[in-house]
Design brief:
Number of domains: 1
Radius of gyration: 22 Å
Strand content: under 5%
Structural class: mainly alpha
Order of helices and strands: HHHHHHHHHHH
Number of strands: 0
Number of helices: 11
Shape: globular
Largest sheet: none
Helix content: over 70%
CATH superfamily: MetI-like
Length: 278
Amino acid sequence: MRTLRDRAFWGVCFVGLAIIATPSIWVLITVFAQAAPVLDWHLLTTTTAENGLLNAVLGTLYLLVGVAVLAGIVGIAAGIWLAEFGTGRFARGLRFCSEVLAGMPSIVIGYVGYITLVVQFGWGYSYLAGVVALSVLVLPYIVKTTEVALRQVPTFLREAAAGLGLTRTATVWRILLPPAIPGVLSGLVVALAISTGELAPLLFTAGFSNGYPPLNWFGHPVPYLTDVIYTDLSLPGATAHATSAAAGAFSLILLLLLIVAGRLLSRRARKATAQMSL
């Protein structure tokens, strides 16, 4: 009877793994198969004006760097405050607002960004408007994972730091944050992965350009991969559809690189924490 239960349990686990893995593998195979006719060096050496993707890839990376800086700083700081300092109604209100924002449709955030940043502030379709819209979209994930990662740090570390006379700020930075870094990095990687695949906020705030990403932050549209996916897929012709699939393939490659980089950084942070504890 026990053996039967064991096999049934592992069977359910295998079915769950298959349910998760099959769609992912199917998406990868389908996208790369459709992109195969146009996958060559021409895509990575020319801009979208010449049916290439170089400017869109650079623009996507440009946007991700801005989101990592803006959303990373604000989200991690908010998560630290909620985990270690936030009490009372204000903290509960902030958590509630974060949860509401997490369920907000991305197109609504894009529309509000258009009305506020593009029109009222006069930024126009620009890099900074796109970064702000994407950062607002992914902030709840960074805030929540940072708060959870800090709360999972054992309480005795806080008590030991208090016994040694460390201030709360020093306790957070020197004692609590190092073991929480893997969880914080996971939240940041998830946020960047979501940003990689978003289109609606950028359509309303970043616009699109067939040129290279601008160095100035205001008044100039930015190229990015998801616009190429959407636009070329709606055009007639097999070449346009293959280019759309190629843009999707490069988005998936960026996503995989982000996941691998996040895992490597998390592993390195765990090793550093283990050495520090020794």
